[in-house]
């Protein structure tokens, strides 16, 4: 065996003749006679199995593999393993060295969110780790993602609208020079919907689907959903009930037996107010009124 050579293989994305490739580069120790290299490409598929997709023997300090949507697909985590040997003594090989896994596809940063019903906007970045090729019929070099939200788990007891709102329904990833595993990026904001329902923690999902692409690589790809956990915050309550007894937000109690239309509640900071209309309830011993109508904005 040759000693460990510190080849340190690294995978980077690259466009070659308009098609998406991954390039494995490694250090080349000075040696006489010159070394040859065996580069084995493998992938972690979405099912969690690691499988070999290509094997090269080369004198170069790099090796390419194409992401063709068949052997290598978007959503795969890809590795390259490099072993060195001399041509004269191929049985004397260095220890194989494996690169870090390279995730090829679209990443959300952060990968999950935990937010509260406090009205704050949270920034979500969408990043493509591979370059976006320009189809022959289109020179715009972009991917359009259709965004949607839904309750997590249709069998959960929370059915109904999701607890989150997005700042956009579509985002465009436009090609840019690849820097630090980002070849295209966009951002949007996520806000928790304040629904006043006491439902504890609730999980919603953000889904992104590429639209309008005809090439095999993108057409069959759906990025992994983003889970958003929304935490309730305590909300104030006020009441007007029966003949009307009124309890204010701070717990003060009084009665209002008058007939007429009243301003029950009004915000000093936003356009929010509630009016109530009270009619005679037919009290025999004393005047009694009941709520018969409400208007809110």
TrEMBL record:
Pfam families for the chain: Ig_VWDE
GO molecular function, one term: signaling receptor binding
Keyword Signal assigned: yes
Keyword entries, A-Z: Disulfide bond, Signal
Annotated GO CC locations: cell surface; extracellular region
Keyword Disulfide bond: yes
Residue stretches making up the VWFD domain: 236-297
InterPro entries assigned to the protein according to its UniProt record, in alphabetical order: Dev_Signal_Modulators, Ig_VWDE, VWF_type-D
Alphabetical list of PANTHER family matching this protein: EGF-LIKE-DOMAIN, MULTIPLE 7, 8, VON WILLEBRAND FACTOR D AND EGF DOMAIN-CONTAINING PROTEIN
Protein name: VWDE protein
């Amino acid at each position: 065996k040759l000693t460990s050579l510190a080849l340190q293989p690294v995978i980077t994305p690259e466009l070659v003749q308009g098609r998406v490739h991954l390039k494995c580069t490694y250090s080349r120790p000075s040696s006489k006679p010159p070394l040859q290299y065996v580069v084995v490409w493998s992938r972690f598929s979405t099912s969690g199995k690691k499988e070999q997709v290509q094997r090269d023997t080369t004198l170069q300090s790099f090796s390419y593999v194409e992401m063709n949507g068949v052997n290598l697909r978007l959503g795969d985590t890809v590795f390259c393993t490099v072993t060195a040997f001399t041509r004269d003594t191929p049985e004397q090989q260095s220890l194989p060295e494996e690169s870090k896994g390279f995730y090829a596809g679209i990443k959300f940063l952060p990968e999950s969110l935990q937010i509260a019903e406090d009205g704050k906007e949270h920034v979500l970045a969408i990043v493509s780790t591979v370059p976006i090729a320009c189809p022959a019929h289109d020179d715009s070099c972009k991917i359009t993602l259709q965004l949607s939200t839904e309750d997590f788990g249709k069998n959960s007891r929370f059915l109904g609208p999701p607890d989150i709102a997005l700042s956009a329904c579509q985002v465009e990833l436009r090609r840019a020079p690849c820097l630090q595993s980002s070849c295209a990026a966009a951002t949007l904001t996520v806000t928790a919907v304040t629904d006043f329902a006491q439902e504890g923690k609730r999980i919603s999902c953000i889904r992104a689907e590429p639209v309008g692409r005809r090439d095999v690589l993108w057409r069959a790809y759906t990025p992994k959903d983003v889970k958003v956990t929304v935490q309730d915050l305590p909300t104030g309550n006020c009441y007007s009930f029966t003949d009307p007894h009124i309890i204010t937000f701070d717990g003060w109690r009084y009665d209002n037996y008058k007939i007429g239309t009243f301003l029950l509640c009004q915000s000093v900071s936003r356009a929010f107010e509630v009016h109530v209309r009270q009619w005679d309830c037919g009290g025999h011993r004393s005047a009694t009124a009941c709520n018969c109508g409400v208007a809110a904005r």
